[in-house]
Amino acid sequence: MQNRICKAISTIVMTAVIVLGILFMLIGYELYSKEARDALMSSADTALSFTDKPEEIYDVMKNAVSFDVRVTMIDNDGNVLYDSTSPAALSENHLDRPEVRQAIENGSGTAERYSNTLSRRTYYYAVKTDGGIIRFSCNTQGISAIFLGAIPIFLAAWGLVMVVAVVVSMKLSENIVTPIRKMIKSMDVFDDTIEESIADYSEYEELLPMVKLVARMKREIKDYIASLSAEKNTIGLITANMTEGMILIDRNDDIISINRSACDLVNPVFPAESGRNIIEFCRNTDFMELIEQSKCAASVTGTFSSEGRFLRAFISRISSEDKLSGAVIIIVDETEIHLAEEMRRDFSANVSHELKTPLTTIRGFAEMLGGGMITDGDDIRRYGKRIYDEANRLLNVINDIIRLSEIEENHSEIFTETNLSAVAKEVAENLAEKAKRLEIDLSVSGSDVTVQANGGYIYEMIYNLTENAVKYNRPGGKVLVDVSRAGDKAVITVADNGIGIPKEHQGRIFERFYRVDKSHSKQTGGTGLGLSIVKHIAALHHGSISVDSEDGKGTVFTVMLPMTQQTAMAPVQ
User: Fold this and answer.
1) Contact, 443 vs 479, CB < 8 A?
2) Is the pLDDT of residue 571 over 60?
3) Long-range contacts of range 57-63, CB-CB < 8 Å, 24 or more positions apart?
4) What is this structure's pTM?
5) Distance in angstroms between the alpha carbons of the first and the last residue of the chain
């Protein structure tokens, strides 16, 4: 740690020196360059005030500034008439030079670029006179050379600073690390004389609270382990009667103790006895990964599956005298929680989708109407009808959701004598007009069967089944509602010879918002909740519902209800 502290301090100092050195050089270069340019321009303006002859101007400029100056005389056509440094420039036309063009247009101009004539970077200042343009220039690379020459001085200073920084950092790091090393060394011998050892740290006020805390925790851990050993038999009696699985393993992952519940949850054929390794008990990769993770942490928790169950494991490691002794594993069955959470997520997602779809359509058409995008009367009526239809669809979904919630919450409904045949006939009468419009032959058969039931719910159940049989049928099709009795059960069947339900969909048709043909459901106004409501009503009456269908040939729904009812609602699977 001392080396790391020393390196950190040295690195910070080195970085600061380099950054500040570069910053100072850049600022100095910029200031010196600006001063040189200002001196060139000022001296040039002064020289021009006395004479307009380039030879005389050049002589003045040589004595006025401390750097090399070049003077060039250029006529208005760009031809070089005089150049103090390079006679070769007389043959070049300078009309395209930026500083020359600026001088012609504005009276003066500046530029900085690489000079092909002088083979160096140059700063130019041009002034328009009566005789043409007089241009002054100086070498900017000379300025750079001045600062490059300062680099060895900078490096020497940097080296000196680094030597001082290393010496100082070593001293500081030693002062920081020494008490920590002393504390660590002392902690190895903390035992019954812990209070006496703590007294040695009185001079280190910052470390003393931490030393006391660690010492106290060590004493508590030792007491806790001693308590566990004394209560082993009591724990054995408790774990044997736990519904949760409990396993105690040693540092080698061998089972010290295991209750029957753990075996029933994970491996029913595994004997509830000690001596075997945990991998013989459960070879699930997720479970074994949790075991490995617990070796590096005081406690871990995670889920895994076994025997069709969703299980959660809580693993707490046990240590004695700073040595790993084993771990306690608690296994809890979360299958129902998992399924309920999965059902909740699916329901939330489905509800969101079913509500957002008509709302989006309504908003879109409303924006078009409200924005004046639609002015034709027929179009207005057509879009208005679409809004009305989507609003009805939305209302139907909401009503079905509310209805489903009401059925789920009503665990203790009042049941009365209900004639199933009479209810079936009432449903047929209310659907007669719709069936006639769709060219469906709707009829009711069977005998009078009376059960203890909620009449309103029974009507809703038969109505939903019968309406589906009518809607999902063909012109000329038949729907038959039959009521009969089989032992102590009342049997209601709704059969049709319509489009049928494919085999792959029959296992899911009672799920909320599940539709076999979404496009057809949308056309018929279906919400996808009708059969789910039917199933819940049957469950409320401790009954059951089944389906027998063949794609393209028809469907038969069968509801079986007990003749008498209990007060508690049966769970919906």
Assistant:
1) yes
2) no
3) 57/134, 58/84, 61/136
4) 0.37
5) 62
The two tokens of residue 215 are: 């010492």
Question: C-alpha distances in angstroms, 128 versus 48, 83, 102, 132, 137?
Answer: 10, 16, 9, 6, 15
Which sign does the torsion angle of CA 78, 79, 82, 83 carry? Answer: positive
Q: Which two tokens stand for residue 64?
A: 């006025």
The reply to whether domains 2-148 and 338-404 share a CATH topology is: no
Tens of pLDDT, residue by residue over 37-54, are 777 787 777 777 777 777
Strand, helix or coil at 243?
Answer: coil
Which tokens go with 439? 């060219």
Superfamily of domain 2-148: PAS domain (3.30.450.20)
257 or 9: which carries more pLDDT confidence? 257
* Cβ pair 139, 122 in contact under 8 A: yes
Query: Domain segments of the chain: what residues?
Result: 2-148, 194-228, 231-326, 338-404, 410-562
CATH architecture type of domain 338-404: Orthogonal Bundle (1.10)
Token duo for residue 467: 């309406």
Q: Provide the token pair at 360.
A: 């989006």
What tokens appear for 172 in the block? Answer: 């500081």
DSSP state of 79: B
pLDDT at position 558: 92
Q: CA-to-CA distance for 476 and 442, rounded, in angstroms? A: 10
Angle, helices 377-409/530-540, rounded to nearest 10 degrees: 20
Angle between helices 2-50 and 151-187 (to 10 degrees): 160
Largest alpha-carbon pair distance within the chain?
Answer: 134
Q: Is 488 exposed, middle or buried (0-12, 13-18, 19+ CB in 10 A)?
A: exposed
Which pLDDT value is given to residue 22?
72
* β-bridge pairing 441-446 and 478-486: parallel
The whole-angstrom separation of Cα 412 and Cα 566 is 9
CA atoms of 165 and 33, how far apart (whole Å) = 34
| Tokens 């007990």 -> residue | 562
- The residues near 191 (Cβ < 8 Å, ≥ 6 apart) are none
Express each pLDDT in 304-351 by its tens digit. 887 777 888 898 888 776 677 788 888 888 877 766 666 666 555 556
Distances (CA, A) of 320 to 28, 323, 367: 67, 5, 72
Locate 179 and state its tokens.
């008490």
Q: Yes or no: is domain 231-326 CATH 3.30.2170.10?
A: no
410-562 architecture in CATH? 2-Layer Sandwich (3.30)
Strands 478-486, 489-496: parallel, antiparallel or unpaired by DSSP? antiparallel
Give CA–CA dist 36/13, Å, rounded.
34
- The Cα–Cα gap between 313 and 29 comes to 69
Q: What is the DSSP string of 158-227?
A: HHHHHHHHHHHHHHHHHHHHHHHHHHHHHHTT-STTHHHHHGGGTT-TTTHHHHHHHHHHHHHHHHHHHH
- Amino acid at site 187: M
